[in-house]
Design goal:
By secondary structure, the protein is mainly α. Helices cover 69% and strands 0% of the residues.
Length: 74
């Protein structure tokens, strides 16, 4: 019997996307401070803003599956 491969992103792939997005946002903020109105730079910042919701998802996921909430929070 053949098993179907899971489709979609793995958690590690999501983490790498979030890391790349966060790095892009930070570099854009350092190289181009004060949020210039150039569309390309704004796109870099918008891409960078994807990092926070992805990391929040993993925090919620970890909270849901933890056995010890106090230890998880610590």
């Amino acid at each position: 019997m053949e098993t179907m491969a899971k489709k979609g992103l793995t958690s590690n792939a999501l983490k790498m996307i979030a890391l790349a997005a966060m790095t892009t946002d930070h570099l854009a903020a350092v190289i181009f401070p004060n949020y210039p109105t150039n569309a390309g730079i704004l796109i870099l910042h918008i891409f960078g803003r994807l990092a926070a919701p992805i990391y929040w998802f993993f925090i919620a996921e970890g909270y849901y599956y933890t056995r010890n909430v106090k230890r998880y929070i610590g």
